[in-house]
Amino acid sequence: MCDDDTEADNAIFLQRPHLTRREVGIGAGAFVAAALAGCGPGAPRAPASATGPTTTGPQPAAATGTHSRMVTVTTPDGVAEAFFVAPASGRHPGVILWPDIAGLRDAYQTMATRLAAAGYAVLAVNQYYRSSKVPVLASFAEWMTDAGKAKLAPMREALTPTGIASDGAAFVAWLDAQPEVDPARKLATIGYCMGGPFTFRTAAAAPRIGAIGSFHGAGLVTADADSPHLLLPRMKVAALICIAQNDDARDPTARPALAEAAAAAQVAAEIEVYPAQHGWCTLDAPVYDHDQAERAWARMLATFAHL
Questions:
Q1: Which of 101, 154, 164, 250 could form a disulfide with 2 if both were Cys (CB 3.0 to 4.6 A apart)?
Q2: What is the DSSP code string of 82-149?
Q3: Is the separation of the CB atoms in 203 and 232 below 8 Å?
Q4: Interval 204-261: pLDDT, tens
Q5: Burial class of residue 28 (count of CB atoms within 10 Å of its CB; 0-12, 13-18, 19+)
Q6: What number of other Cβ atoms are within 10 A of residue 289's Cβ?
Q7: Quick one: which H or E segment has residue 239?
Q8: How far apart are CA 254 and CA 245, in angstroms?
Q9: Residue 209, SS3?
Q10: Mean pLDDT lowest for which of 13-27, 29-43, 236-250, 277-291?
């Protein structure tokens, strides 16, 4: 849940002596380096109904037939930086990617490029644009330091539900104006850690969103009147909600509350607790779990197949 308790859970988990290098994510930085060099871990292929080319793993843009650029997006609160990557030709469904607590960095540019290679036009955003330009932090490891946490604290405070909803709508409008994006296809949004609930707020604010994916999302069910799960009636989406085992253990009521809210809203939702720790999908996270990240990736592509 992007807090000290979660990191303490993960620290204990990483001390378990029987875990393999892959299970604990040792060498997650090497996964990023390998991916950027075009020799990343193998990936499941997209379903036959998915649009665009398939990919066998994250590779550099030139090798996968994608092109990328840093862009700026005007929002009601300022100008947001983002990384945009898409297939080199044609028009494709657009995807907004909300990074985890450590913000937009190489790991998420790699992940965005991999998704673009599967046939999507991906906008990976700097959610902290109100406070800082990129890079906010160089790596996930920097967030885990006292200095990193102190730096991010006021930036996190600046991220309000209303602001995220307006940002999401602005990102949707920007994507729809790009020649790489197919206006006849629905858009999607995915989020990791703190970005998980941002996908709910984006979908509730923008009817163009047809699918959401939350990966180890934080605070999806709260006691607040504007809790993300209470926004489900305002969405027309297919929802993929992948929950970390330690998040589920801390709040076992969240998963059934999400399922109940989705059923009441008639939202098709796949909600599952994965046998992995909070942060398992992010390439540079200490608890990166290759096998479970690949399983979540495959489920994401299947969820997006209807866009």
A1: 101
A2: EEEEEESSS-B-EEEEE--TT-S-HHHHHHHHHHHHTT-EEEEE-TTTTT-PSPS-SSHHHHTSHHHH
A3: no
A4: 999 999 999 999 999 999 999 999 999 999 999 999 999 999 999 999 999 999 999 9
A5: buried
A6: 24
A7: strand 238-244
A8: 12
A9: strand
A10: 29-43
Alpha carbon 121 to its chain's center: 14
User: What is the DSSP code string of 148-188?
Assistant: HHHHHHHHHHT--HHHHHHHHHHHHHHHHTSTTB-TTS-EE
Other C-beta atoms closer than 10 Å to the C-beta of 50 total 19
Q: What percent of the chain has pLDDT over 90?
A: 78
H/E segment holding residue 68: strand 66-75
Q: What local confidence, expressed as pLDDT, does residue 4 receive?
A: 53
Q: Which residues contact 11 (CB under 8 A, 6 or more apart)?
A: none
Q: Nearest 5°: phi and psi at 248?
A: -65, -40
Q: Is the pLDDT of residue 47 over 90?
A: no
| Angle (nearest 5°) at CA 143 between 135 and 291 | 95
Pull the structure tokens for residue 146.
């006292």
67: which 2 tokens? 């092109």
Question: b/e per residue, 220-243, with b = 16+ CB within 10 A?
Answer: bbbeeeebbbbbbeebebbbbbbb
Mention every residue, 6+ apart, whose C-beta is less than 8 A from residue 40. Answer: 31, 34, 57, 58, 59, 110, 114
Q: Using an 8 Å Cβ cutoff, are 97 and 215 in contact?
A: no
Q: Which amino acid is at 284?
A: D
- Asked whether the beta carbons of 70 and 82 are under 8 A apart, the reply is yes
